[in-house]
Amino acid sequence: xxxxxxxxxxxxxxxxxxxxxxxxxxxxxxxxxxxxxxxxxxxxxxxxxxxxxxxxxxxxxxxxxxxxxxxxxxxxxxxxxxxxxxxxxxxxxxxxxxxxxxxxxxxxxxxxxxxxxxxxxxxxxxxxxxxxxxxxxxxxxxxxxxxxxxxxxxxxxxxxxxxxxxxxxxxxxxxxxxxxxxxxxxxxxxxxxxxxxxxxxxxxxxxxxxxxxxxxxxxxxxxxxxxxxxxxxxxxxxxxxxxxxxxxxxxxxxxxxxxxxxxxxxxxxxxxxxxxxxxxxxxxxxxxxxxxxxxxxxxxxxxxxxxxxxxxxxxxxxxxxxxx
Length: 324
Ligand SMILES: NC(=O)c1ccc[n+]([C@@H]2O[C@H](COP(=O)([O-])OP(=O)(O)OC[C@H]3O[C@@H](n4cnc5c(N)ncnc54)[C@H](O)[C@@H]3O)[C@@H](O)[C@H]2O)c1
Description:
Blueprint: E1 2-4, H1 9-16, E2 22-27, H2 28-34, E3 41-44, H3 53-65, E4 73-78, H4 80-92, E5 98-103, H5 106-112, E6 117-122, E7 125-132, E8 137-140, H6 150-166, H7 176-182, H8 184-188, H9 192-212, H10 227-236, H11 243-260, H12 266-277, H13 289-298, E9 307-314, E10 317-323
Parallel strand pairs: 1-8, 2-3, 2-4, 4-5, 5-8
Antiparallel strand pairs: 6-7, 9-10
The protein binds nicotinamide-adenine-dinucleotide.
């Protein structure tokens, strides 16, 4: 169940975990800002690097120390890092207990809290160890976005733009890319009504894809648009750039590859790049191609020496390509 636009998130959490003992896993900044009061709480240090085996072990130990049973629940309150690690802990603790996702970044609201992918990183790369574990409930309170810094807000917008590039149909009104283009100023100003609509659109799009292909054997791969190159950027720069910043670099790279392969027109590629410019994403300097190639070969989507790229093929349409 997914609920969007709540007023009292703490009551909602209590209601949705009634009868269960919750272990809350909360992002550090969120803990400082909102000071959630729970008997069992694990505060996750900030940063992508925390999504590792050691931290997972600590979360699982916290669950054991709190004597969580198979009927209890882990509640992730925070960004995608908290959601991914708490979700994976819930997937493995006593062979799987409930998880409730309370996303507090835009990225987590539009993407990582929905769909059931959970993971940690290893020294070999991003999200290499994980599980599919659907949340029992996702509770989205837009008020959290008020304290999100500009950089983190933009990183969520990167995933929003990604949805526009992969799917045309949003709702009765049609074109998501056009909607983002027309409302760019309001989006940059965090207009709440527009954001609520965007979050609903992104979630319904993601849910529709996940429903058809939960375990990513085909269609779900389109959600990785910009991610093969993006993950390599994150790895090569030692996570200096946020996930969204890296995904924007990946989407620009995908458009340049598609142009090279004559998959899209120059005018569409230009329009796509102009749309990304409207949100003032930072530019990532050119990175050594040999190293990037090496990281992409190591991506978990690579098989038999071929790297899978999701490339644009037409307006708001993408497809998967195996490339050696
Ligand atoms: N599971 C999935 O399907 C999926 C999809 C996309 C991304 N991801 C993962 O998500 C992660 C990135 O998530 P993210 O961008 O949310 O980063 P994050 O979890 O690192 O959060 C970013 C920062 O924002 C802070 N923060 C969170 N909420 C806040 C708020 N309301 N106010 C102020 N500060 C706040 C956090 O403490 C942190 O410092 C990556 O690890 C990525 O791999 C997973």
